[in-house]
Design goal:
Layout: H1 12-18, E1 21-29, E2 34-38, E3 41-50, E4 56-60, E5 67-70, E6 78-86, E7 89-96, E8 108-115, E9 124-132, E10 135-142, E11 145-146, E12 150-153, E13 160-168, E14 174-179, E15 182-187, E16 194-200, E17 210-217, H2 223-232, E18 249-253, E19 272-273, E20 282-286, E21 290-293, H3 295-302, E22 307-309, E23 314-318, E24 323-329, E25 333-345
Antiparallel strand pairs: 1-25, 2-24, 3-23, 3-25, 4-22, 4-24, 5-17, 5-21, 6-16, 6-20, 7-13, 7-17, 8-9, 8-16, 9-10, 10-11, 10-12, 13-14, 14-15, 17-18, 19-20
Length: about 350
């Protein structure tokens, strides 16, 4: 690709239409890490060239490069929060199914709730495992006993998925579990209300993988509202266009350390995950966690929506975008990014979401 922008007076009109070229060289991007690059204006074309002798550059698109956390299989690691009892509730969160154990014998607890009814840890929790590359299994664990196993088919287990749990203390004690916005299980007589949440491993058989973007609502949301949260993805759940009206948003934990972009004035730390709505911060109980690419960014690479560039390969894509992401795969990577730009400011480019667009 050639950038031949002449500054002569006769060419000023075409210069204003086309905009300036944008160029950047990145050296030594560590294996397994991601570089987020945001352009000054919306692009017309983007070119990426790999200069590395081994490994690959993976190049894709993501406008919300948020972070998540991962306990890194460090035994004893967990985070906790307690709050005034929420009688009816819905909890939604993203977890990395890639890191679930294989087979029912390696089932791990993906969330643990302090309940009003039972009043102790493990009063109500959900345990999950992988059955195959396209199937997961899970069980409710209620007051010391497992309920029968439930299975659910997914497109692939090797990426992040969205899990929602709701509870309604209307006398029936109805609890529901949703995966990726779809209702997969309903149980009655389970629990009524919660007073706290634990993620991680304060005891045995707990999940020590990735978590991201968690919300707590003061109602058992409708099936459609749960689907709205799943489809909404990484956007701010406080915004009215989410269209959740059954319950109030009690807490929002974004797991965001501002690694790639400034999302919050005060980022989360390795000891505190801040509640962006209330005061129910997650505090590190023991061990450690680290920040990783969140579900929105990780699934760009895990879902096959990338271009793979090996040694000295390059690719040019005609596209209108305001940012790209590049990940080093197999070795540290050196690469160049070139872009020709329009005169459209990036803030005038909006996300398009919903059926027929994301599917």
């Amino acid at each position: 690709m050639s950038f031949n922008y002449t500054t002569g007076l006769n060419n000023m009109g075409s210069y204003q239409v086309s905009g300036r070229p944008w160029m950047k060289t990145v050296t030594g991007l560590a294996d397994g890490t991601t570089q987020y690059l945001e352009f000054t204006n919306v692009t017309k074309k983007v070119r990426v060239k790999n200069h590395t002798g081994s490994g690959k550059c993976l190049f894709g698109f993501c406008t919300n490069p948020g972070s998540g956390i991962n306990f890194g299989a460090t035994a004893g690691s967990h985070i906790d929060t307690t709050f005034t009892a929420v009688t009816n509730f819905t909890i939604s969160y993203w977890i990395d199914f890639t890191e679930l154990g294989s087979g029912s014998g390696n089932r791990t607890r993906i969330i643990d709730l302090d309940t009003v009814n039972f009043g102790s840890n493990n009063g109500f929790s959900i345990h999950m495992h992988k059955n195959s590359d396209t199937e997961v299994g899970f069980r409710f664990f209620i007051d010391g006993s497992y309920l029968p196993a439930i299975t659910h088919t997914v497109d692939t287990v090797n990426k992040w998925h969205h899990v929602t749990v709701s509870g309604n203390s209307d006398g029936s004690g109805t609890n529901k579990v949703y995966i990726d916005g779809t209702l997969v299980s309903t149980k009655t007589g389970v629990t009524g209300g919660i007073t706290g949440i634990e993620l991680g491993d304060s005891t045995t058989a707990a999940y020590l993988g990735g978590y991201d973007q968690t919300t707590l609502w003061s109602s058992a949301l409708t099936d459609q509202e749960v689907a709205n949260i799943y489809n909404y993805g990484y956007a701010d759940p406080r915004l009215s266009d989410l269209d959740v009206t059954t319950g109030t948003l009690v807490s929002w934990w974004a797991f965001e350390n501002n690694l790639h972009k400034t999302f919050f004035a005060t980022p989360d730390t390795t000891s505190v995950i801040y509640d962006r709505v209330g005061s129910n911060n997650f505090a590190l109980g023991s061990g450690a966690y680290s920040f990783v690419d969140g579900f929105n960014l990780a699934n760009v690479f895990n879902g096959g929506h990338v271009f793979s560039l090996e040694t000295l390969q390059d690719i040019e894509v005609s596209c209108k975008t305001k940012s790209i992401v590049v990940r080093a795969d197999g070795a540290a990577q050196d690469f160049d990014v070139y872009a020709s730009l329009t005169n459209i400011p990036i803030e005038r480019m909006y996300e398009l979401t919903g059926p027929g667009i994301d599917e």
